[in-house]
User: Fold these one by one.
Assistant:
Number 1:
Amino acid sequence: MSQKTNHPSPTAATGTVEPPMIEAVGLTKYYGNFAAVVGVSFTVPRGQVAAFLGPNGAGKSTTMKLLTGYLAPSAGTARIAGHEMASDRLAGAARLGYLPENGPLYDDMTPKSLLEFFAAARGLRGARRRDRIEAVIDLCALGTVVGKAIGKLSRGYRQRVGMAQVLLHEPDVLIMDEPTAGLDPNQIREVRQTIRRLGRDKTVLLSTHILQEVEAMADRILLINEGRIVFDGTVEEVHAGGRTLDTCFAELTTATA
């Protein structure tokens, strides 16, 4: 088992130390007497794609909701770009794009009208709003469906619409829960390429069940089981000693792990 802490690094422009873009410190969440997550701690710096893995019910979605401020922790602290989400959520949310699994979309709207709506909600105005909408339509390859009702789109295109609205305000941090769920192989490849491209200068934390996609997208792997982090390391560290990611996952998430 590997546990380590990523320290902040100096920024190129100023030489000052930049805080971790995602920081979990002792995050704990109870539902009654049930502990969904216990003492979860990790950091993710700028320019890294981290995959968050674990079996169903392990605490992945709960941890992501705690990081985004959607849920309040029973104990511990969540920070986005240095902003504590319990006390400074609006400032943190301005730096964050969150794509939940099966995120809500308005079926009677078109991708263009939906993006206009969210751009206005984000406070984008005038030429900047127009430019950002055009940019995310291009980035997420929505040009051929931009005028169609969202309710008539395939799941792959709906996922792209969700990703487009998440990217509208140019967030520094992206948190995505199962971004490739239900997509066909071609759609998965397109999403994977988009995430890798975004990960060059943003911070990405994504949850997925597709282990082969992890090795194609992620710089780092966080593995959670029964509400606790049981592995934190690179893909290369997973393969130490000839292990595969499948083997590592099985070893660390069985009932006796």
Number 2:
Amino acid sequence: MATTEVEQHVKVETEGGVGWIQLNRPEKMNAIGAVTRRQLGDAIKQVERDESVRVVVLTGSGRAFCSGADVTEMAQSGDGGMRTPEDVGNVLRNEYMPMLTRLRTMPKPVIAAMNGPAVGIGASYALACDIRIATPEAYILEAFVNIGLAPDGGVSWLLPRLVGTGIAYEMFFSGKPLQAADAHRLGVINRLVPADRLEAEVRELASQLSTQPRQAMAAAKRAVNHALESSYEEALEFESYLQEAQAASPEFAAGVQAFLAKRANKIK
């Protein structure tokens, strides 16, 4: 396994076509501060650009996936005073937004291995992934209201599309968590697995996906993202465009040949 440790707060590993990004502040439940943001941004760019990486996994260390922004740090500016509202907005626009957009749009499947709670901006990272596998102890918490803030990190767009507006509003207004079992029932979490099986289950899925035609998976991701903001007719047209492009690809030719060979063998 080729291993690169990005200083202290984020670890990156690549193995067998899978890029693993691990938040590595277990003593702070993987809270995200300025250093973590820089390192996480670099890690996401690294796995996206690495041609050997076909699937990406995002996870945390210790007992949490991510406990959200480091509120102690968020409340202070570089000189020890309170951050201005403009500082908060600029961090969201200039640092979080590019990372979250990259996760949602990179042409590779992204799996969140939720080893524990995903809170605030941590929940935004989990929800920006394509697939979520979690332990029963995990939960999703949008507690912005408890510190007098509105939801951020794209969660006002993502969460209602996953759970409906009613549940999203209740979470935003009450600051109460969505437990893993309920998130699984609602389809937010794909699978619930025991903590001691989480890594093995994620590795198995990531390994399976790493053998799938990469352009076809990228096209499927583009189709879903486009459809979320399109009419039915627009989605049909975009699918037609993608299928036309895929039909001209080596992946399609190889897939058809493999299918025909398999059918010929069955007939024999």
